[in-house]
Write a structure and sequence with these properties.
- The protein is mainly α.
- It is built from 16 helices and no strands.
- It is globular and about 60 Å long.
Length: 420
């Protein structure tokens, strides 16, 4: 009897010890499960952190890529346009000398376009015969008006205005071509003007300053800086004696010529997308211009050998130079620059023609250099700098943050936020 209570107490103690051990084991197992769960959560957070690091590295790679594009500047269009300006300046000097020898205006334009066609047609045929698209009716109409505006009408109106006014006044109107092009490009949505941005304010300021320089060139002559008699004053008096009607007709012709050339730059940006063969498009333009001006020449000029046959060596050199270098290579280079940098960038270099031509004329033709020409040329250069700076900054902004890349980055950030 005494042993049974003792045995029962021992059994109860063993049961308590077993329950305590079982509770301790369960607690340990629960603690181990919580620890493993925390480890898994830590691993998941580590994976998310590594995903964020990889995303940041990818974003950094994009930034570095666009920073490389920002630092890489393409100077080829600018160098090309400077070369075109020099060619045009020499061409204007040779043209003036040929006119002084009695060469007719329409005849020079016809021979110029014919020479350019014969020069470009073989190059276009062999270079683009495998890539040339089909010449549709729509493309032909575009090319016809490109020839009318850029090659025929512009040159004919410019020479008409030059005959009725003065050379300085005529060049001043041509200097207004960048301003006309910029204003005409706005409604066609080829240019955007946001004065709140630095690029937009620079383009607007450059246009205004360049226009002011062109007006100074046209309206203010000033004293001669070379010390010789002012021949332009005699020319102005002679035109004033001829009447205000001739001056008004000449001014209207120059205004129409500048507007026509500006419209050609706008149209050329469209042709570059519809008929993307530069040599063939330019060759077609000069061939159609040759037919247009030949029809005008037949209607207005006498059909005699004295008028249509080139006689002197200077006239032969002038026709070959203006046809090959001026029309052929010059318009080819301008069309290429329009495709690369747009019409406003290309026409922004046009005011430099008068500056380079004035230097050539002072040295070669011993013409006078006046204070108004220097002041106006300085304003034109300042305006040109502002326009080019604005276009360059605008191009950099588009390259650094294109819409497609920005969309990708935003989508990646959104997906990363959802996974966190």
């Amino acid at each position: 009897m005494g042993e049974e209570p003792r045995n029962s107490r021992q059994a109860e103690q063993r049961m308590r010890i077993g329950q305590s051990s079982a509770g301790s084991g369960a607690a340990q197992r629960a603690a181990g499960g919580w620890s493993s769960e925390r480890g898994e959560r830590s691993d998941a957070e580590g994976g998310q952190s590594s995903d964020r690091d990889a995303h940041e590295e990818k974003s950094g790679a994009l930034v570095d890529l666009h920073s490389g594009q920002e630092t890489k500047m393409d100077f080829k269009p600018a160098v090309t346009m400077v070369a075109v300006i020099v060619v045009f300046a020499v061409m204007n000097t040779l043209t003036k000398m040929a006119f002084n020898e009695g060469m007719h205006t329409t005849v020079l334009i016809v021979l110029r376009q014919l020479t350019a066609t014969l020069f470009l047609a073989p190059i276009a045929y062999f270079r683009e015969r495998k890539t040339r698209p089909k010449l549709t009716t729509e493309i032909f109409i575009y090319l016809f008006f490109s020839a009318l505006l850029g090659a025929s009408l512009t040159q004919w109106l410019f020479f008409l205005g030059l005959r009725y006014t003065t050379a300085t006044f005529a060049c001043a109107f041509i200097n207004m071509t960048p301003m006309f092009t910029f204003l005409l490009a706005l409604p066609f949505k080829l240019e955007k003007l946001d004065v709140a941005t630095g690029s937009g304010a620079a383009k607007l300021t450059g246009t205004a300053v360049g226009l002011a320089g062109a007006l100074v060139l046209a309206l203010y002559q000033g004293p001669s800086l070379t010390g010789a008699p002012a021949a332009a004053s005699v020319e102005l008096a002679a035109h004033a004696g001829g009447g205000a009607r001739r001056w008004a007709v000449g001014s209207a012709a120059l205004l129409g010529g500048s507007a026509s050339w500006s419209l050609w730059f706008i149209l050329q940006s469209k042709i570059g997308t519809k008929y993307p063969v530069l040599y063939s498009g330019t060759a077609w333009m000069f061939f159609l211009s040759f037919l247009q001006m030949a029809a005008v020449g037949v209607a207005t000029e006498k059909m005699t050998s004295h008028v249509w046959v080139v006689a002197t060596r200077l006239q032969i050199v002038t026709v070959l130079f203006v046809g090959i270098a001026g029309s052929g290579l010059g318009f080819l280079a301008m069309s290429w620059c329009v495709e690369r940098r747009g019409p406003v960038f290309t026409t922004a270099f046009m005011p430099l023609v008068q500056i380079v031509a004035a230097g050539i004329n002072v040295v070669a033709l011993h013409e006078q250099l006046h204070l108004g020409s220097v002041v106006g040329a300085a304003l034109v250069v300042v305006g040109l700098y502002f326009v080019l700076w604005g276009k360059t900054k605008e191009t950099r902004t588009k390259e650094v943050c294109p819409p497609s890349v920005s969309k990708i980055v935003v989508e990646e950030h959104a997906s990363g936020t959802e996974t966190v």
